[in-house]
Every structure is written in structure tokens, then in C-alpha cells.
Amino acid sequence: YCLQSPEPFVRLWLEILVNVPDWNRDHNVMYLMDIVIRAAFFHLDARNSTELIFANLYS
């Protein structure tokens, strides 16, 4: 895809995963979320998107 950062994919996947009913209790969703968040960790814009998605969930 010739992207400089995984941010669009991180945002896409996290938005999909947090919309799964009871996502925080589903081990399969948590497994996928762990992989996505690990990919985002070393990219500042992707990490900021991750933090923003979770901040919006818990605010």
C-alpha cells in the first residue's frame, strides 16, 4: 500500500474491533487488538490514534 505509517490500518481495525459487542470480554477480539496495538507502538501517529480511540471510549 506504500504507506509511511500503519496509522490508517490501526484506526480502521480498532474502530471495527471496539464495535464488536462485549469486545472487552472476547478473547479473540483482545488477541487481534493486541496485535494491532503492538504494530502501532513504534509509530507516533498510530499510537496517538490508538490513545484517542480509547480515550473516547472511556470519557
Concise description?
With 59 residues, this protein is mainly α. It has helices at 7-18, 27-40, 44-57. Helix 1 packs antiparallel against helix 2 (27-40) and helix 1 (7-18) runs parallel beside helix 3.
Q: In terms of topology, how is this protein built?
A:
Layout: H1 7-18, H2 27-40, H3 44-57
Helix pairs in contact: 1-2, 1-3
Specify the overall morphology. globular
Oligomer: single chain
State mean pLDDT (0 to 100 scale): 94
Give the N-terminus to C-terminus distance in angstroms: 34 Å
Radius of gyration: 11 Å
Report low-confidence residues grouped into runs of 5 or more.
none
| Strand/helix succession | HHH
Share of helix, binned: 55-70%
Largest sheet: none
Tally of distinct domains = 1
Query: How many helix segments?
Result: 3
Q: What proportion of the residues form beta strands (DSSP E)?
A: under 5%
Number of strands: 0
SSE class: mainly alpha
